[in-house]
Amino acid sequence: MPLTLVQPDTVVRWHRKGFRSYWRWKSRPKWRGRRRVPKDVRDLIRRMSRDNPLWGAPRIHGELLKLGIEVSQATVSKYMVRHRKPPSQTWRTFLKNHAKDIVSVDFFTVPTVTFRVLFVFLVLGNKRREVVHFNVTESPTAAWTSQQIVEAFPWDTAPRYVLRDRDGKYGEGFVRRIESMGIEQVLTSARSPWQNPYVERVIGSIRRECVDHTIVFNERHLRRVLKEYFRYYHESRTHLGLEKDCPKPRLV
């Protein structure tokens, strides 16, 4: 048999080449190319990132693992929806998250039998849709309005936020008074009553169910009518937003 003489370095080089070839064969992929992520998984990743804009790839990846879906975190990052700017909570989310700490205030008008216009001021607790305070006047001023807030929240019962529109009837006196009580104002945008929905809904209910069917004589009469209506509103009338219960829960 033929005999070939080689250098020691050649033997080492052959060994290294054989070692690389062996491990290339040992590590060969079982399929050609990267396995494609199923469409339903890609759609789920996009939906989760779209519906939860504060979730990053690690959080979504963890949720997928809990659902038994085995994908890498890099894959999750690849198919996530990219948000152009940090997400901002909607008005609905803000109201829901802070309902127990928010009161809404607003005015509405009622004509009398002699065609005078009376102004009704409402203070509504957003958590249970409860009318905390109301009063009637023919000439609302900033001083009168700020006094209503004091009467609505004596001592240390003031809420954290008051939600109101930009009506000029509030004035600087009202602003100074609520700031002195430690209440933070949240102002709605101009001509956007939908940003103060709870009190607007209550005013609509008052009109449809009460004052639209009554001829008001004077301030005293309107106060008596509204007082009777609010007793019904708090103790008997069910609300969709309260799982069809009353502001003051009613027994079955």
List keywords for this structure.
252 residues, alpha/beta, Nucleotidyltransferase, domain 5, 5 strands, 42% helix, rod-shaped
Protein architecture, described:
This protein has about 250 residues and is of the alpha/beta class. It folds into two domains: about 35-90; about 95-240, Ribonuclease H-like superfamily/Ribonuclease H (Nucleotidyltransferase, domain 5). It has helices spanning about 10-25, 40-50, 55-65, 75-80, 90-95, 140-150, 170-180, 195-210, 220-235; strands at about 100-110, 115-125, 130-135, 160-165, 185. Helix 3 (about 55-65) packs across helix 4 and helix 6 packs parallel to helix 7 (about 170-180). The chain is rod-shaped. About 20% of the residues are buried.
* Number of continuous helical runs: 9
Number of beta strands: 5
For the largest beta sheet, what order do the strands appear in spatially? 3-2-1-4-5
Sum up the overall morphology in one term. rod-shaped
Mind telling me which CATH architecture of the largest domain this is?
2-Layer Sandwich
| Corresponding CATH superfamily of the largest domain | Ribonuclease H-like superfamily/Ribonuclease H
Beta-strand portion reads 5-15%
Q: Please identify the top-level CATH class of the largest domain.
A: Alpha Beta
Q: From the alpha-carbon coordinates, what is the Rg to the nearest angstrom?
A: 34 Å
Sheet/helix structural class: alpha/beta
**Number of domain units:** 2
N-to-C CA distance: 105 Å
Major sheet details: 5 strands, mixed
CATH topology of the largest domain: Nucleotidyltransferase, domain 5
pLDDT < 50 runs, ≥5 residues: none
The residue-averaged pLDDT reads 89
What is the helix content? 40-55%
Q: What order do the helices and strands follow? A: HHHHHEEEHEHEHH
